[in-house]
Amino acid sequence: MSRPLEKTTFTYGDYRNWPAEERWELIDGVPYNMSSAPSRRHQKILMNISTEFSVYLKGKTCDVYQAPFDVRLPNSNETDDEITTVVQPDLVVICDPKKLDDKGCIGSPDLVIEVISPSTMQKDLKEKFYLYERMKIQYYWLVYPEENIVTIFTLTDEGKYGRPDIYAGKDKIDIGLFQDFTIDLADVFELKNGNNDQD
């Protein structure tokens, strides 16, 4: 571990100096180790979702990115090195090209997807939920690979996430960000032919 032990709060300036082979996130200066490898099913589902978005967004102004991809979320007018929140969501959709640079994204994506793993569940359900709500991310998806469930939180006019929409099994999801885009969960979870590997 290369982090100075005497520090309790870290910034993007610290983060950039950590070994490239280590994966970390910072939420309000608190580091979270992302080194544990996700399951094969986690990766397969993420690839399926990413493919759906990539195909739909080809030639459009919005972009989709899959982890590892740094999203810096400044609280105000911090310089890059002062930012205390840097996350690597499983998948993000960004429709404002001004938010993109060679380091990743600075500012809130329009849509964030996290595929739940046992090692990240608490962070995804608690710390990241309140972070994404605070940062006004319009859509937050939680995908449960074992249960074949997708929970979608949408930001209300009051700036809070309302009650989630819950989809399961072979449901189809109309993507709120785009009027003519639907994802079939049977394709995402590979249920049409009875395939449902749980590795």
From TrEMBL:
Domain of life: Bacteria
SUPFAM superfamilies, alphabetized: Restriction endonuclease-like
Pfam family, one: Uma2
GO molecular function, one term: endonuclease activity
UniProt keyword annotation of Membrane present: no
Domain Putative restriction endonuclease residues, every copy: 14-185
This protein's UniProt keywords: Endonuclease, Hydrolase, Nuclease
Protein's UniProt keywords contain Nuclease: yes
Protein name (database record): Uma2 family endonuclease
Taxonomic path: Bacteria, Bacillati, Bacillota, Bacilli, Bacillales
